[in-house]
Amino acid sequence: MARTPLIAGNWKMNLDHLQAVAFVQKLHWTLKDAGHEDGSVEVAVFPPFTDIRTVQTLIDADKIPFALGAQDLSTKDAGAYTGEISGAFLKKLDCGYVIIGHSERRDYHGETDEIVAAKVQAALKHGLVPVICVGETLEQREESGPTAVSVAQLTVALEGVPADAEFVVAYEPVWAIGTGQVASPEQAQEVCAALRAVIADTLGADAAERTRVLYGGSVKSGNIASFMREPDVDGALVGGASLVAEEFAAIIRYQKHVGV
Ligand code: PEP
């Protein structure tokens, strides 16, 4: 089964709702002019919560073929949880995806593997596709090898997930996020293959075959093609380089400019 590559832009806390409009329009026209809105690569943007309504309206009005996602969600559905955002609200705004367990949330907001697992359940409950982020720090890589941390994190995140659930996994080595220190394609492949094996062991061969596993960490137009050549890398979660329309468009067009 061929998996449609997914190139996802995590804006983090960048671009307000007015800047978001300019950015999405520019990205759309750059890709359209290049003849690259043909569905061969799925494009998803993950703006801050305050931009989502604006981006949704723009995508809808101009029939822009980008998927929309949020960067986090609450484990709760509704109620007295000040500052939290329910998956139900995201679904109403046509979000298809939600990032869960990004290392910045694990690190700065104390998100444990158990919280990540609860958020995965919340996403699935509300019909959102979780993008489950896993990855090791440099210290952890040196201590326990390249795959142990990511395998353990994903194993907990998948507890209670049904075999037919749609989700995405993003391998994001912490040492490569926003550092310019990119993993080699071989390093990415090794961990992505180990993560696919976890999916196979937990949910079966079909789930492993259809689920997209992304690499994330200092992806740029100059290195994306080398990752996409790896058999277990099905796309990229892109941070910094997703904020510059021409650069993000060049990443999305990796097949064209390098001839993969
Ligand atoms: C990320 O934060 O998901 C990420 C991969 O960031 P960057 O591309 O900037 O390393």
From TrEMBL:
Reactions this protein catalyses: D-glyceraldehyde 3-phosphate = dihydroxyacetone phosphate
InterPro entries reported in the protein's UniProt record: Aldolase_TIM, TIM_sf, TrioseP_Isoase_bac/euk, Triosephosphate_isomerase, Triosephosphate_isomerase_AS
Entry's localization field: Cytoplasm
Residues of the active site: H102, E172
Enzyme class: isomerase
The organism's place on the tree of life at top rank: Bacteria
Biological process according to GO: gluconeogenesis; glyceraldehyde-3-phosphate biosynthetic process; glycerol catabolic process; glycolytic process
Pathway(s) this gene product operates in, as recorded in its UniProt entry: Carbohydrate degradation; glycolysis; D-glyceraldehyde 3-phosphate from glycerone phosphate: step 1/1; Carbohydrate biosynthesis; gluconeogenesis
A GO cellular component entry from the record: cytosol
Record: residues binding substrate: N10, W11, K12, G178, S218, G239, G240
Annotated keywords: Cytoplasm, Gluconeogenesis, Glycolysis, Isomerase
EC number: 5.3.1.1
Physiological role: Involved in the gluconeogenesis. Catalyzes stereospecifically the conversion of dihydroxyacetone phosphate (DHAP) to D-glyceraldehyde-3-phosphate (G3P).
Family: Belongs to the triosephosphate isomerase family.
Quaternary structure and interacting proteins, as annotated: Homodimer.
Name listed for the protein in its UniProt record: Triosephosphate isomerase
Species whose genome carries this gene: Microbacterium telephonicum
